Amino acid sequence: MVEQNKELTNTKLTVEEEIEYKNEMKLQLISFAMMIILTIVAFAAVATDLLNSTFKVLLVLILAGIQFVFQVYVFMHMGQKNHEFPTIAIWTGVVVALLCIVACAGLIW
Amino acid sequence: MSAHQSSTLPQHPEKATLEGRNKFLGLWFFLAGETALFATLFGVYLGLRNSNAGGPTAQELFSLPLVFVMTIILLVSSMTSVLAIMAMRRKDMKGLLRWFIVTVILGLAFLGLEIYEFIEYTHEGHQFTKSAFASAFYTLLGTHGAHVAFGCGWITTLVIRNFNRPLDTYIAPKFYLASLYWHFIDVVWIFIFSLVYLLGVIG
Question: What is this model's ipTM?
Answer without folding.
Answer: 0.87
